[in-house]
Amino acid sequence: MANIDVRMSVEEWRERHAGRFSYNGHIGGNLISVDRSEAEAGSQIIDRLPRHIVLMDSFMGFFLETLVLARDRIRAVGWSRDAHYPAALVCFSNMFRRFRCCEVLFMKGYAFDGYALMRDLKDRAFLLAGVARNMATFTMIMVGPDACDPSQDDYANKTTRSRKNIENLISRRMSGKDSGLSIDIQNDLKRWDQLFNYEVHGGILSFAQEVAALYTAGKAPSIGPMFDDDALAMYVNRSVEIGWLVVRLLPFLQMSLADFGSEWEDKRAILDESFRYMVEELGLLGKKIGDSLIAMVDTKFSFKQPFHYFEADGTT
Fold first, then answer.
1. Both 155 and 20 in a single domain?
2. Distance (Å, rounded) from C-alpha 77 to C-alpha 255?
3. Are residues 15 and 143 in the same domain?
């Protein structure tokens, strides 16, 4: 183990590393080639997927606009009297950042890495829909109904178990055995969910992709971005599907009916139609998941009107 003097100055620290890790005069300078590859990957994606880029840029811009409108509304009239509206705002703000992370990774050529993060976005969308359909409260999805006194030794275990129970209940009622959807649709949605898990746990999809390329085409694993058609398609399809779920949920940020105005609602309607169009194309290509996703969105991401924030009690 290296003998490091903890009193080393910043300059001494820099010199110590510069002596071993400099390349062309820069510490870590050999990463410049990766930076260039990432920029090139983004340019290729823009050229190859113009319709997708237009849709997702429109969606992300609208998502940001919605958060700003919510913030401005709070400044103008004050916070909602509903106790958990701040929790809703935090949930949507966190989703925006996570979606932005996915998009940045995708545009840098890391489609499977962005895809892996999409699983969390899907889970968050389901939980928010569970609250918006009054299956659960924010307390239930964040802490759990059976949470004990925080001073107790098993507090962490009990709250984790309670949250998982609520997550499973919402999942069953949104897409599983208690959803009322046909068995075929349930099975399609289960496979859809499993595809996320394959990449989240162990990177199975990306590993299989590169191993196949190595053995069938003698293609060495990519260092840096991986520009692969299957990876791009999987990310594009899933980001469109999750984006559609979010668009359906966004009115829940309104403290009262039509808080964001008619122009905002017109924009949201256009995005809703555009996402549906893209998902319908999966069905036209023979992908059953397209039709199954539409059935799920039309029934489970369709909310009681007028749809705006309300204080859920979890009784539905």
1. no
2. 10
3. no
Residues 8 and 130 in one domain: no
Report CA-CA distances (Å) from 215 to 221, 224, 267: 11, 20, 48
Position 184 confidence tier, pLDDT thresholds 50, 70, 90: very high
* Whether residues 138 and 24 fall in one domain: no
Q: Is there a single domain that holds both residue 19 and residue 152?
A: no
- Global pTM reads 0.91
Residues 24 and 54 in one domain: no
Q: What's the domain range around 248?
A: 49-300
Sign of the Cα torsion 112, 117, 120, 121 reads: negative
75-92: pLDDT as tens digits: 999 998 889 999 999 999
pLDDT class for 150, splitting at 50, 70, 90? Answer: low
Same domain for 155 and 27 = no
Q: What pLDDT score was predicted for residue 211?
A: 83
Q: Is residue 255 part of a domain?
A: yes
SS (H, E, C) the chain: CCCCCCCCCHHHHHHHHHHHHEECCEECHHHHHHHHHHHHHHHHHHHHCHHHHHHHHHHHHHHHHHHHHHHHHHHHHCCCCCCCHHHHHHHHHHHHHHHHHHHHHHHCCCHHHHHHHHHHHHHHHHHHHHHHCCCCCHHHHHCCCCCCCCCCCCHHHHHHHHHHHHHHHHHHHHCCCCCCCCHHHHHHHHHHHHHHHHHHCCCHHHHHHHHHHHHHHCCCCCCCCCCCHHHHHHHHHHHHHHHHHHHHHHHHHCCCCCCCCHHHHHHHHHHHHHHHHHHHHHHHCCCHHHHHHHHHHHHHCCCCCCCCCCCCCCCC
